[in-house]
Amino acid sequence: MESREDVLQFVLDYMAERTSRTVVKAWFSETEMVGLTESGAVIRTPAPFKRDILRERYAEPVREALRELFGVPMDVDFIAGDDPAPDPGQPEKSGCGGVPYYRQQYTFDRFVVGKSNDMAYGAARNVADNPGGDYNPLFLYGGSGLGKTHLLFAIANQLRVQRPELRVLDFTGEIFTNELATAIRQGTTPAFREKYRTADVILCDDIQFIEGKDFSQEEFFHTFNALHQVSGQIVVTSDRPPKHLPLLEERLRTRFDAGLLVDVQSPDFETRMAIVKSTAARTGLRLGDDVIVYIAQSVTNNVRQLEGFVKKMTAYRDMMGNVSLEGAQKALNEIVEKHPGLRPTPDYVLGKVCEYYRADKSDVLGKGRQARLVQVRQVGMYIVRKMTDISLQGVGDFFNRDHSTVLYGVEKMERDRDSNPALDTEITEIMENIRSV
Ligand code: ADP
Ligand code: MG
Questions:
Q1: Mind listing the pLDDT tens digit for each residue in 307-356?
Q2: Cβ(144) to ligand 1 under 6 A?
Q3: How far apart are the first and last CA of the chain?
Q4: Which ligand 1 atom is the nearest neighbour of the CA of 112?
Q5: Buried b / exposed e across 408-418, counting CB within 10 Å, b at 16+?
């Protein structure tokens, strides 16, 4: 959660899950979060009559959502278009030492370590224990939602507690760029430079943002040098390694390459299981092993989605009392329906395949070898492989087959599509059904 916009979105999703999306949408369309401080949030709506209704009916649900998000009681006020906005002098929502609460939650303790991220975790810990030491600069890269920002904040949080004498600056490539632009416009670049170049530790998240932006890169280069000369620690994250940032200035690339480059990869099945368990435990959700396995098998894209899903299960539990395997499947399929951008789960794909061929899921997952059943099964495996990033092994686990059977089926479908136009049409139609939800 980075911005007020994210916070508002969380609040709306949270309420929509518990009441009705349509109703929430009706009252909260055109709202904006115009204030967010330690003690509460201020939400603006254009029309005074809406403000009055919101105050009456929604103050409590919003407070509840904010509490869920920040973990502490928070208040909310609604204002209408012309009402005075909150005092901008108020501090932004924060906890100890001016660090927003949500960031304080990103600690090393909470980071689940597995094969996919143990290098990154180890390097980050080393930096936090020994800033300006061996791993300088540290360049963490990897896809979205894999824990880069988490590790960056974990370094910041540990340093602020254990080394309060150090000036630790964390910022994003975007903030750096915007602040610089403002400084240039207002003629305050000396202050800008002073701020960044005299820090002991700089933690720059999403550095890819400065790629191709000459002023920013130039300024970052000098900041880098100023710190490096006095053994100040530099950590940056990026969605790609330096060599895949074609517009990154060569001299910056050289600097980064001279440090430690570590990638954060997608979590493997074991790590996903551990993340599901830890998120569930944190949110007070008890899940059976079958449900944990199901979630870890189905949500493979990134940790953000995995966590998001477990949190949504909490809402489900609140309604239904407990979370059964069917409940989890149903909830996950609903999420896929609501978010067409998401990759479908294997269960969802199979549902659509079975619907299309009027086959029975349990037969497809069972042992039957009739030609028609085998074909439905192979179409299912093929589409799961096409539309998700689940490994052959993962697809095999889902279909109760080994990975070579999956590989065989997928390759067969690939070939048959070329020679059999009817099959090709069927597969295309099913994939469209899945996409068009
Ligand atoms: P990125 O910056 O790589 O896009 P984030 O650090 O924002 O990803 O991670 C997305 C979400 O997933 C955050 O809520 C974060 O706490 C969580 N997360 C990511 N990796 C892990 C992990 N290994 N253990 C626990 N939580 C994780
Ligand atoms: Mg990030």
A1: 888 877 776 676 666 778 887 887 777 766 666 556 778 888 999 999 99
A2: yes
A3: 27
A4: 24
A5: ebbeebeebbe
